[in-house]
Design a protein that fits this description.
The complex is a heterodimer of chains A (392) and B (379). Chain A is an alpha+beta fold. Chain A contains twelve helices and ten strands. Chain B contains eleven helices and ten strands. The structure holds flavin-adenine dinucleotide (2 copies).
Chain lengths: 392, 379
Amino acid sequence: MNFGYTEEEEKYRKRLNEFLDEHMTEEIARQNWEDLGVGPEAREFSKKLYENGFLGLPWPKEYGGGGLSPTYDFILIDELGKRWGAHVPLDVGYTMTGHTILRRGSEEMKKEFIPRIIRGEIEFGLGYTEPNAGSDLGAMMMKAEDMGDYFLINGQKTFNTESHYADYHWLAARTELDPSKPKYKGISLFIVDQRAEGIDIRPMITMSDERTNEVYYDDVKVPKSRLVGEKNKGFYYIMEAIDSERNHVFVPARLWPIVDEMITYVKETSFQGKPLAADPDVQAKIAQMAIELEVAQMLADNARWLELNELPMTMEPEITKVMISELEQRMVDDAMQILGLYGQLDEKSKWTPLRGRIEWFYLHSFMPTIGAGTSEIGRNVIAQRGLGLPRG
Amino acid sequence: MDFNFTDEQKMLRDSARGFCEKMSPMGYVLEMEKSEKGYTPELWNAMVELGWMGLIIPEEYGGVGMGFMDLIVLLEEMGRMCVPGPFFSTVILGGYTLLTGGSEEQKNEYLPRIAAGELVFSFAYTEPGMIKFDPSHVTVTAKAEGESFVIDGTKLFVSDANVADFIIVSARTSGEANDKKGISLFLVDAKDPGISITQLSTLAGDKQCEVVFKGVTVPKANLIGALDDGWSVMEKVMLYASVGKCAEMVGGSMRVLDLVLDYCHQRVQFGKPIGVFQAVQHHCANMAINLQGSKFITYKAAWMLDEGMPATRICASAKAWVSEAYKRFVILGHQVFAGTGFMVEHEMPMYSRRARAAELAFGDAPYYRKVVAQDLKLG
Ligand SMILES: Cc1cc2nc3c(=O)[nH]c(=O)nc-3n(C[C@H](O)[C@H](O)[C@H](O)COP(=O)(O)OP(=O)(O)OC[C@H]3O[C@@H](n4cnc5c(N)ncnc54)[C@H](O)[C@@H]3O)c2cc1C
Ligand SMILES: Cc1cc2nc3c(=O)[nH]c(=O)nc-3n(C[C@H](O)[C@H](O)[C@H](O)COP(=O)(O)OP(=O)(O)OC[C@H]3O[C@@H](n4cnc5c(N)ncnc54)[C@H](O)[C@@H]3O)c2cc1C
């Protein structure tokens, strides 16, 4: 066993942190989160990341990457996370769809998209969920008819979070329209210009004031060259990507800022002449946050290690996902309790502690146990795929 | 990063698994809980044969010279089958105390005999006044008299004192009850007439004792570590002990999950194996989360100890988390086994009783949260 990083990797981390000290602002961090949504600052930051040699290190050399181990991207995401940054600005392309393009896309498609993903130039909106297809993705109805030299797409998506600023839509739609065929075997993946004619994007605002979208397709024509991999294999491509996506998206490091900020707060805030940090209840709560994050980090490290070594993953990334999404809720609850009455103030109040970040996190914390697969579906996966229990 | 055990460790695991399953089935464990001694010489001698007593003892002292991670492999297997006896007290508490604080003479004298399985050790550090866990609470006194120290006072919850040849005792040589400075460690002959040992009747059927010291005289040569600085030795030993306990709990969890999953396939209700019911599946998923988390935090702590890195926070985190995870774990296990698991001769209670004992041993979750808080510079 060895839980350390190589000297080269640590050097990279150090260089990265020097860069982040200089260039990463809270504004950018909040644009990286869905919180504010990617704007010009985060786009600019994305380019700088590339120009300074921090994007694309693990990606294949032939498309402009560095050909190194995926560990470098994990370090990048961890260090951004520790600064409230959550992930790279153009996250869907870089940590999700890009990898499926590499695995399943045509040579032409790889050449078109991968170099721009590596350079931090383009983003994708993830187009899976529909009003009647949430957990049961296979039930999607969005229709893509094969018209010979193009696909004609009609229907509606919902909760497509990046679509209002994304350049492309990563769309899953039904290409097998015969209802007697198994539903999982009739879905395909497409890359659609997000601004294509016939697409209508309508905002949906979340309880934590983030924007996600409904996306309507009305006779949208998509060239055949934008079909990802083979027709009717889309559902399997989505599933084969899911473990690695979890490893890149559910990152314990991004919860450290809560601990760090709370430590600062309890040291600087006194009650009855004593710093809150001396209160045993406060100590226990903050210690528990640190302890659980340490455990979560090990779960994540284990799943990442399996991925790096191309070993089978059955439940490991799912375990990380369930653990840290629920951990976020416990942490935020403890943090809110420590903040007492002040915890209910949002960032607009002059009395707000910690710039309202905890209050925002409370609102946000209802989402990770739902998005990208609910905790219930996660536990089904752990029990069935991981532990071999029978399907009902 | 590497989450693999070495080939040697895998071999050790396989042989330990076979051994523990053969030597320590449930019937034996339950019988030993009721017995006076708590284990049989056959079991002890067979473990000696395998070289386990000397696993972590360097070759120069007659041991095998392996690392803490190797011991973790073994402890996991022992915890898996609830193997009884004073192995933990002797090898970890006795062994690491001598290795950490012992003089060259002490190491030469005792370590080879531990490795040979000739000696049983016990470590007496908890006391009746320790209403909340805090090993710096030491009121047993050791007074210098000429070339000797005279020890007086009562220790409680002392594991395996009933079968020990030697007891290592923490005693106050200066300062107040909760001062870390002023604690010294002494090696005491357990058969000293000034020592009286009474077994306590415990939840897990393990052998914990009250040990009363009345005018027990020990030569100065039996001081382990520096005078008044026993804490620095104890602190280190506590890290090994708490992570070692975690490994036992991980082993117990592994076994319970195996049993539960088998039962899920076999037990039929409503015409279906209960493993198809989602409520049951989610219990199992929660067990898997608790088990994986417990495993990796334990391995990380053991690895950092082996590497000589600062390990206080990680060890404290491990003991705090694993103790609570194991309690959650056995509750879920009981739930799946339902009525049948509530019976005294079922394996389930064997583990749920030990889950409590393991949490309490070497410091519970609230104690280690305090340690973590201190490490975070709170308070
Ligand atoms: C803020 C936000 C952003 C999102 N961004 C995107 C995005 O960018 N792109 C995208 O495609 N999607 C996105 N989603 C959608 C997300 O993936 C879905 O919300 C999620 O998969 C759950 O689907 P649902 O909300 O329809 O819940 P439902 O599937 O209707 O579930 C309702 C409840 O039933 C439970 N349930 C359902 N099936 C089962 C079962 N078999 N066993 C046990 N329990 C079950 C669920 O666990 C849940 O508790 C986003 C969601 C949110 C909230
Ligand atoms: C101390 C004690 C005293 C008792 N006293 C009496 C008594 O006086 N008289 C009497 O008649 N009985 C008595 N019982 C029996 C008790 O009612 C049963 O133990 C209980 O009904 C559960 O049945 P089971 O143990 O066979 O578990 P099982 O039914 O085998 O259940 C095993 C697991 O599967 C789950 N499960 C089963 N079916 C489903 C489902 N459809 N959906 C989801 N999960 C499911 C259960 O919740 C449980 O987790 C007693 C039991 C105990 C432990």
